[in-house]
Design goal:
The chain has two domains: about 5-160, Sandwich (Jelly Rolls), CATH 2.60.120; about 175-265, Homeodomain-like (Arc Repressor Mutant, subunit A, Orthogonal Bundle), CATH 1.10.10. Helices cover about 40% and strands about 25% of the residues. The chain has helices at about 85-95, 115-125, 140-155, 160, 175-180, 185-195, 200-210, 215-230, 235-240, 250-260; strands at about 5-10, 10-15, 20-25, 30-40, 40-45, 50-55, 55-60, 65-70, 80-85, 110-115. Strands 1-2-9-4-7-10 form a six-stranded antiparallel beta sheet. Strand 5 and strand 6 (about 50-55) form a beta hairpin. The longest helix has 20 residues, at about 215-230.
Length: about 270
């Protein structure tokens, strides 16, 4: 099996991937704490790129657009334990524990390289994935609360992320779209992340760019793809996902329609 996922609960999972690469564009609904057992992952955001290897532990904030690429490495499958830190669970935790420092939205990906406390907490979950219904019901809750407590002991600023329960506020639409147009998200998601309803997002977008979101996104993505192929001599198959297209055939058709020639023409012989 190329991809397999086991669950202790819906909030704690063990994933294993044996293919060449697995790539997806995501926006996590909850904070995600991940511990790598083997393999490599690259996380690409608008302003930063992170690479993680076996033994690394990291925390991805919720409501962040990212491209995630998973690779097997050194002959081993890509294997990781992931824990969802839901808003409901964190609200319960902070109703019993006072947040330290100023509560504010933090955008960075937190890296905890081979930290023994976190690694032992997450490694202790491995035997539970094969127990199924025999696992005591409160074990998962205990382990998630343990992980939150360890995170707070490691990084005093993490409360600024974990104890913030606000939804995205209304932000500058032009700046956000110029930085995130390559992420293949629905207009609903773009609206949510800029603090707008879909109708308000469409209206504000028309006012800012004097065109529809669909036309503007397609144009921007094709311009990005054209640059990557023509200037950096990258193959279309390596570019189309990064540029925000779902499949190669649709990308090739849109590219030829826009520029009058297929993308392969730009590759120097």
């Amino acid at each position: 099996m190329e991809f397999e996922t086991k669950y202790i609960t819906p909030d704690i999972k063990l994933s294993e991937f044996n293919g060449k690469t697995f790539r997806t564009e995501v926006m996590f609904e909850h904070h995600m704490l991940v511990w790598f057992i083997s393999g490599e992952t690259k996380i690409i955001q608008a302003d930063a790129t992170y690479t993680f290897n076996a033994g690394d532990t990291f925390l991805i904030p919720r409501n962040q657009l990212a491209t995630v690429i998973n690779y097997p490495k050194d002959g081993l499958a890509h294997k990781a334990v992931a824990m969802h830190l839901t808003k409901e669970r964190l609200k319960d935790f902070y109703s019993r524990h006072k947040a330290v420092g100023r509560v504010q939205p933090l955008q960075k990906v937190y890296r905890f390289t081979k930290h023994p406390l976190l690694e032992s907490c997450l490694a202790s979950l491995i035997p539970y994935f094969d127990l199924g219904d025999h696992l005591p019901a409160d074990i998962a809750n205990i382990k998630i609360e343990e992980a939150i407590s360890i995170l707070r002991s490691i990084d005093k600023d993490v409360d600024g992320l974990l104890a913030n329960f606000e939804e995205p506020g209304k932000i500058n639409l032009t700046d956000f779209m110029e930085r995130h147009y390559m992420f293949n998200m629905t207009l609903d998601r773009f609206g949510y992340l800029t603090g707008r309803s879909l109708a308000t997002f469409r209206r504000d977008f028309k006012r800012a760019f004097n065109t529809t979101p669909q036309k503007w996104l397609t144009e921007k993505r094709l311009e990005l793809a054209h640059y990557e192929i023509a200037e950096k001599q990258r193959k279309p198959i390596d570019v189309y996902v990064e540029a925000g297209f779902e499949n190669l055939s649709h990308f090739s058709y849109a590219f030829k329609t826009r520029f009058g020639y297929p993308p392969n023409v730009l590759l120097k012989k």
